[in-house]
Amino acid sequence: MKKEPFVTLKKLNEITEKFPTPFHLYDEKGIRENAKALKEAFAWNKGFKEFFAVKATPNPYLINILQEYGCGCDCSSETELMMAKAVGCKKGDIMFSSNDTPEKEFRYADEIGGIINLDDITHIESVEKALGKIPEVISCRYNPGGVFKISNGIMDNPGDAKYGMTTEQIFDAFRILKSKGAKEFGIHAFLASNTVTNDYYPMLAKVMFELAVKLQKETGAHIKFINLSGGIGIPYKPDQEPNDIRVIGEGVRKVYEEVLVPEGMGDVAIYTELGRFMMGPYGCLVTKAIHEKNNDIEELIRLVRSINENDEKKTEEKYCTFSINMAKLFEVYVRICIQNAVEKSEWGLEPYVGGKEIRNDKHKNNEYGAIRAVNDQERQSREYIDGYLIPDYVIRKENEFIIFDAKYKKCEMRDKKNNFNRNDRLQLLAYAYAYSGDIEKLENCKCIGIGHIFPECEAVEAEINRIDSNGSKLYYKQFSMKELEDDTEDAKRHLLKWPSRNTK
Fold first, then answer.
1. Residue 364 confidence (pLDDT)
2. Collapsing DSSP states into helix, strand and coil, what is residue 114?
3. End-to-end Cα distance, the chain
4. Which of 112, 138, 230, 453 shows a CA-CA span of 20 to 30 A to 238?
């Protein structure tokens, strides 16, 4: 479905010249046409009435528009009841449904002429205590339990809902209420929310109509109205078509004539309590952005490259001053370059594989401590804390993997034989030992190489003696971003070409 705004940009610009943003804007014409369509769709039922769900849009001016089309108010709190009274609702214009209700709210609802809809059988006692009686007109909310299905699938799961009485309870409630003076009854149900199908209301109506017939026969209670509540929704996705209220109304009419009319119940009024359907498509929030925050990593990468390139274009680009974590940015940029390098190769860049914690307590008879695996959530919550081993990058081929670490700093050159920082070297060796053989995603895998990536450095390759059960060796490689930023084939050569002796 193509969604068309109800106001043009030109008109919005005219309005914002007079009224400062932010503000809500409503389509009065659309609201009126929709209310008129609803009324016409159920015109076949003499007692039909829409009780607008005040909670959906508690705006008295909009409620006044709906009142022109015979709509009342559906309320669930004292505040909503007060608004209904303020807009001029009279006796019979208010439906009060609440599942955790103070006695004073029952009392107030009755005082202003509201119809009380009982959510639970225990509310009978509360209402009687609050009012000193049971109202002559009263309603009960029904919950059939289980799942609610229509032709194209499951709509919702009423069995999990907290609203309404069971089948057994509603029969008991009608008998009790009738014995305490109630003369006219209503049935209410809310089984699904925001349905985008013309089938929901007719299917719900059939359930309610069949229940009404049984209730009237078995309890002798006179069913005055059946409240289908809300649930008719609006499309939020492009592939959804909006509900057709006239088709819905016709579907309910057919079920009404099939179930109620043959039982002599053709005088039962149909009520609805629509909210989203009545107002959702006809309002919008109008505001202006006064600042723009750009976290686009691609833009940052482009900026870094433009600074490093000595070309004429960069002098033409104007950038405002800002502060960024260059070490973190460098890590992200390196990850992108590695991903590009290993693409379509036999190697793959692993996602973050979690962390490993160096424990100093005795563990499994190891008095010198142990290494344990850390899940991803724990890793994220304790990242960069001393005692955790979290490699920057792991690339993997079958049962072999290589660990790289990005260093956003000047490469410390010592001598040709030992030309990388001792602490950096030990960090990589710790990764290699900790992550070989016993961590999720790397189980039964062997680390064959380690490496450092600097913004700028001399290329270094070295073989490192490694003390383990099989006496194998590690291969070390150090290279700069310039090598990694080369064309794809050269990047693969620098990144992935490890000596064959390393795999022995």
1. 42
2. coil
3. 61
4. 230
Per cent of the chain over pLDDT 70 is 73
Closest of 274, 280, 216 to residue 245, by C-alpha: 274
Domain containing residue 362: 354-389
Could you tell me which of 455, 443, 195, 489 has the C-alpha nearest to residue 340?
Answer: 489
Torsion angles phi and psi, residue 251, rounded to 5: -65, -40
- pTM assigned to the model: 0.60
- The residue type found at 107 is R
pLDDT in tens, 404-421: 888 888 776 555 455 556
Helix (H) or strand (E) holding 276, with range, is helix 276-279
Q: Is residue 21 part of a domain?
A: no
Those residues whose C-beta lies under 8 Å from the C-beta of residue 219, and which sit 6 or more positions away, are 171, 174, 175, 178
Does a structural domain hold residue 338?
Answer: yes
The kind and range of the H/E element at 285 are strand 283-286
Beta-sheet pairing, 355-359 with 370-374 = antiparallel
DSSP three-state, residue 293 = coil
Nearest of 342, 347, 469, 340 to residue 401 by alpha carbon: 347
Instruction: Taking residues 368-390, report their average pLDDT.
Output: 49
Query: What are the structure tokens assigned to 479, written together?
Result: 């290279």
Distance of CA 448 to the CA centre of its chain: 43
Cα-based angle 37, 260, 249 (whole degrees, multiple of 5): 15
Cis peptide before 22 (omega within 30 of 0): yes
Q: Are 481 and 409 in contact (CB under 8 A)?
A: no
Backbone angles phi, psi at 74, to 5 degrees: -95, 120
Residues 499 and 379 in one domain: no
| Per-residue buried b or exposed e for 146-172, using 16+ beta carbons within 10 Å of the residue's own CB | eebebeeeebbebeeeebbbeeebbbe
Residue 429 lies in a domain: yes
Q: How many residues belong to the chain?
A: 504
Does residue 262 lie within any of the structural domains?
yes
* Of the residues 389, 408, 435, the one at which a domain ends: 389
- Contacts within 8 Å (CB) and 24+ apart, 435-438: 435/353, 435/356, 435/389, 435/391, 435/394, 435/401, 435/403, 438/373
- Interior/surface letters 48-68, b for 16+ CB within 10 angstroms, e for the rest: bbbbbbbebbebeebbebbbe
